[in-house]
Amino acid sequence: MNAPHRSYPEPPVDLLTQSPSPEPAPVQNCEVCAHAAAWRRAYRTGQGTADGCTDHSAAVDCSLEIRNHPHEPRVLGLPVNAPAVRR
């Protein structure tokens, strides 16, 4: 005496075609932001990383560090030295 289960399709989901916000720009004259931007570039290209490989997750972490300015408390522990640029 149970009613039969009826299934109805879900309405379509509209996905964004581009990111909701632009990539954060380093704050001018901020050494931490400039350092994070250099590491973000190194992680995306693999140029300057110890193994020469890309790490897009680490690049996103650098973007979050820049976006969360001011940096108290620090969100991410970046390497102390700037990335080595290989040519």
Give a short account of the largest sheet: none
Q: Please identify the structural class as seen in this structure.
A: mainly alpha
Compute the number of helices: 2
Q: Report the principal-axis shape.
A: elongated
Query: Roughly what is the average pLDDT, rounded to an integer?
Result: 80
**Considering DSSP H and I runs of 4 or more, what fraction of the residues is helical?**
25-40%
The SSE string, one letter per element, is HH
Tally of DSSP β-strands:
0
Strand fraction: under 5%
* Radius of gyration over all CA atoms, rounded: 21 Å
Our measurement of the CA-to-CA distance between the termini, rounded to an integer number of angstroms, reads 76 Å
Low-confidence stretches: none
What does this structure look like?
The radius of gyration is 21 Å and the shape is elongated. α1 runs antiparallel to α2. The chain has helices at residues 31-45, 56-67. The protein contains two helices and no strands. By secondary structure, it is mainly α. 31% of the residues lie in helices and 0% in strands.
Primary descriptors:
mainly alpha
What does the secondary structure layout of this molecule look like, with pairings?
Elements: H1 31-45, H2 56-67
Summarize the structure.
With 87 residues, this protein is mainly α. Helix content is 31%, strand content 0%.
